[in-house]
Amino acid sequence: MKKETWRFIDSGNCSPSYNMALDEALLDWHSEGKIPPTIRFYGWDPATLSIGYFQKVEKEINLDAVKEHGLGFVRRPTGGRGVLHEHELTYSVIVSEDHPEMPKTVTEAYRVISEGILKGFQGLGLEAYFAVPKTAEEREGLKNPRSAVCFDAPSWYELVVEGRKVAGSAQTRQKGVILQHGSILLDLDEDKLFSLFKYPSDRVKERMQRAFKNKAVAMNEISSETVTMDMAKEAFKKGFEEGLNIQLEPYELSEEETQYVVDLAESRYESDDWNFKR
Questions:
Q1: How does pLDDT run across 199-221, given as a tens digit for each residue?
Q2: What is the CATH number of the domain that holds 15?
Q3: 14 has catalytic annotation
Q4: Cα separation of 222 and 33, whole Å?
Q5: What is the rounded distance in angstroms from the CA atom of residue 167 to the CA atom of residue 143?
Q6: Integer Cα distance of 22 and 14 in angstroms
């Protein structure tokens, strides 16, 4: 049986606003039937704190620390919590809700898409598996996360290695299209990450940071060899092809498409209204 061909875009390191605008543009173009399903890999320049669509900046984020570290800042169109995008491979998947291989529920679609990431980790020799919350308490915790930090708790079908979370993803559905994007951690600066959020007290911050060590881990902490960005890209590209049973065809944006993304980045993702007002 012939494999379906999806588009593959490796956009390299881009500004926070451009990254979010390109994901949104791909969703729009796919909903209009202009492009096939697409997988995109990207990085961030500068390193960036992205926050979930529903997060309250004033209440949760230490903007002084964001500035001190010279980080970019952007609100994602997807839910979830704060993510420090630094030493990671970021991916996005854009596919129709009514694609024959996509389950109807968010949770199940999430599992199907994440199969590609699972295969990527396995290709790098890491024994990754899906964490499924078993107790009612764990399931309740997913609805009401205690922390503003994304990697603080495995959610449904989150990918873990040795019981610790190695990839964090978020999903939105708009115009009949699924956009799932997420972070695959190569390395992680925990002190920097924890400085970016507000806490009721230093004691709470210390306690959360201690607990975090048991919940999340970067690839290079557990891999027997150092995983470079090129190795990660190759493994996860193959992983998506295998996990989703597709063929990926590299694509470069046209000048016109790039301009559309630049304009959207400026009008939405660089605007204080979008980033700060919630």
A1: 999 999 999 999 888 888 999 99
A2: 3.30.930.10
A3: no
A4: 42
A5: 19
A6: 10
Sheet with 83-85, edge to edge strand ranges: 72-75, 48-51, 83-85
Separation of alpha carbons 172 and 200, rounded Å:
30
Helices vs strands, H then E, count in the chain: 11, 11
36 vs 109, higher pLDDT = 36
The catalytic residue among 20, 150, 153, 186 is 150
Q: How far apart are CA 264 and CA 262, in angstroms?
A: 6
pLDDT at 153: 44
The structure tokens listed for 60 are: 């949760």
Structural domain range at position 189: 4-276
Distance CA 75, CA 17 (A): 9
Query: pLDDT confidence of 24, banded at 50, 70, 90?
Result: very high
% of the chain beyond a pLDDT of 70: 90
Q: Residue 35 corresponds to which tokens in the numbers above?
A: 């492009």
Domain count, the chain: 1
Instruction: Give the span between the Cα atoms of 270 and 20, in whole angstroms.
Output: 10
The per-residue pLDDT for 152 is: 45
Strands (E), the chain: 4-14, 38-44, 48-51, 72-75, 83-85, 88-96, 128-131, 158-161, 164-174, 177-185, 246-250
Can you say whether the dihedral through the CA atoms of 186, 85, 264, 278 is positive or negative? positive
Q: Go through the chain and tell me how many residues it has.
A: 278
Burial bucket for residue 132 (CB in 10 Å: 0-12, 13-18, 19+): middle
Q: What per-residue confidence (pLDDT) applies to 155?
A: 53
Task: For residues 53 and 51, give the distance between their C-alpha atoms in angstroms, rounded to a whole number.
Answer: 7
